[in-house]
Design goal:
298 residues, alpha/beta, TIM Barrel, seven-stranded parallel β-sheet
């Protein structure tokens, strides 16, 4: 487990799930996975928020995980999304991820039902007890309506197979506060592209990135500069990427990043209701920023 822990670092794209005529486009997804690895991504995260896990059926969810693992062939770690607001459902998805060969799972804070901190602790601890696989806890209060406190994360860090946290709070004080109270060896992963530079400076190990879906080489180079302590170079790349980070969230994600992926021929821009494809205004912004970074011709 320690080996897996140490491999989860750098740029880990939160992969989109391509669709075609309402179905998962398996060919496009395989192409995306292979391209990500060839472009230098350090790991892959299928069926998270960006992968539209909320509107995939259980069969589709499992299939996307299986394809990602099969196509990756062990070249980089796969951290499979396996969270739910039902502890029993999260356990079932986590068991499948382990059986499919995932290196670890990403387990989101239960959304909608708003558990207490004790409920959050028991949710994750119960999953960890039920399935012997490395778990990265996903703290995203903007979507889940509940925030995992620093104190609760300190308790969770002492559960044997909870190995890390994906922090999408954009609160740059959190990683420093957590490092002071959490068990040694916890992996700290930013879940927010725009603040990843500060997060890395506060002791982070990487970023589960939306932007890396379409700019994997730049995002990998950014992370490598951070990991090498070359923050001057990291700042240069950050400045180049910042307009793209903003564009990826100019409307409900992943509509903008799927449109961006369509511009580079990776897949269609199709999303599932209640999400809708990017508006014309969003398309203009995405197209302009993709061109400014050199990802497409102006």
């Amino acid at each position: 487990m320690r080996d897996v822990r140490e491999r989860i670092l750098g740029s880990l794209p939160a992969l989109i799930t391509p669709f075609s005529d309402g179905l998962v486009d398996e060919t496009a997804f395989r192409r995306l996975v292979s391209w990500q690895i060839s472009e230098g991504s350090h790991g892959l995260v299928p069926v998270g928020t960006t992968g539209e896990s909320a509107t995939l059926s259980h069969a589709e969810h499992r299939r996307v995980v299986e394809i990602c693992i099969d196509e990756t062939k062990g070249r980089v770690p796969v951290v499979a999304g396996a969270g739910s607001n039902s502890t029993a459902e999260a356990i079932a998805l986590t068991k499948h991820a382990k059986e499919a060969g995932a290196d670890a799972v990403l387990s989101v804070a239960p959304y909608y039902n708003r558990p207490t901190q004790e409920g959050l602790y028991r949710h994750f601890a119960t999953i960890a007890d039920a399935v012997d696989i490395p778990i990265v806890v996903y703290n995203i209060p903007a979507r889940s309506a509940v925030e995992i406190s620093v104190e609760t994360m300190a308790r969770l860090s002492r559960v044997a197979n909870i190995i890390g946290i994906k922090d999408a709070t954009a609160n740059l004080a959190r990683p420093s506060r957590e490092r002071l109270v959490c068990a040694a060896g916890l992996r700290y992963l930013s879940g927010e592209d725009a603040t990843a530079l500060g997060y890395m400076a506060h002791g982070g190990h990487g970023c589960i990135s939306v932007t890396a879906n379409v700019a994997p080489r730049l995002c990998a180079a950014f992370q490598e500069a951070c990991m090498a302590g070359n923050y001057a170079r990291a700042l240069e790349i950050q400045d180049a990427l910042m307009p793209l980070h903003d564009a990826m969230f100019c409307e409900a994600s992943p509509a903008p990043v799927k449109f961006a992926a369509s511009l580079i021929g990776m897949c269609s821009d199709e999303v599932r209701l209640p999400l809708v494809s990017a508006s014309e205004a969003a398309r203009v912004k995405v197209r302009e920023t993709m061109a400014s970074v050199g990802l497409i011709k102006a």
